[in-house]
Amino acid sequence: MIIALAGRRIDEPDAKTPSFPLAAVPIVRERVRKFLEQQRASVLVSSAACGADLVALEEAGALGLRRRVVLPFAPKRFRKTSVIDRPGDWGPIYDCVLAEVEGRDDLLVLDCSGEEQCYAAVNSAILDDAVALAKAAGEHAMAAIVWDARARGREDLTRAFMHEARSRNLPLSQIATTVAE
After folding, report:
1. Residue 71 has what DSSP assignment?
2. d(CA 83, CA 90)
3. Quick one: pLDDT at residue 94?
4. Which pLDDT does position 52 carry in this prediction?
5. Residue of 49, 59, 64, 28 lying closest to 94 (CA atoms)
6. Residue 155 near residue 163, CB atoms below 8 Å
7. Which of 10, 91, 134, 159 is the most buried (most CB within 10 A)?
8. What class does CATH assign to 2-12+18-176?
9. Residue (of 74, 85, 102) closest to 51 by Cα position
10. 174 forms bridges with which residues in the sheet?
11. In what order do the strands lie in the sheet with 43-46?
12. pTM over 0.85
């Protein structure tokens, strides 16, 4: 199974409504690992932001899965805007994952110039890549979202990923970022 994954970043320190608190990382890590094992995943395609992406990429690496990373723009800029800008020590994890996937030619950089449109383009590229890899390998593709199951309005990129996956008729699984699930 080829997994296309997107999800929540770690909450900002002053988040009024938590969607992925740093304290939930261990339980989310366990849920993601279990999901990957249950799906018999062979490849994980995602971006590499702090939170859901990096947790999933780490777990996929620990399981020996191939990992494909899609970034909207240069890795250094992405690291600054989507990795180290939130609580937690995400920078070294990002650096390690990127070095590994880049060394295997599994890093795709879209080279966008804007921000919000670029992140939406990443969603499409993740799904495109997963479907293409599945077709080439004679496997199936599915989508997974790691989130709190609460839409944040029209600009919610995790929700947009979910809707795009559904519009492509991909099976979809949801992994909770809340401790109580």
Report:
1. E
2. 6
3. 98
4. 98
5. 49
6. no
7. 10
8. alpha beta
9. 85
10. 145
11. 107-109, 66-71, 43-46, 2-7, 141-147, 172-176
12. yes
78 neighbors 72 (Cβ within 8 angstroms): yes
Burial class (CB in 10 A: 0-12, 13-18, 19+), 64: exposed
Mean pLDDT per 10-residue section of the chain, whose length is 181 residues: 98 92 97 98 98 98 98 96 96 98 97 80 97 97 97 89 97 91 51
Distance CA 68, CA 104 (A): 9
93-98: long-range contacts (C-beta < 8 A, 24 or more apart)? Answer: 93/54, 93/58, 94/48, 94/50, 94/54, 97/48, 97/54, 97/57, 97/58, 97/61, 97/67, 97/69, 98/48, 98/69
- Which two three-digit tokens encode residue 93? 């994890």
Tokens of 1: 């199974």
Q: Locate 18 and state its tokens.
A: 């938590």
Sorted by where each begins, the domain ranges of the chain are 2-12+18-176
Q: What's the burial of 139, exposed, middle or buried (CB within 10 Å: 0-12/13-18/19+)?
A: middle
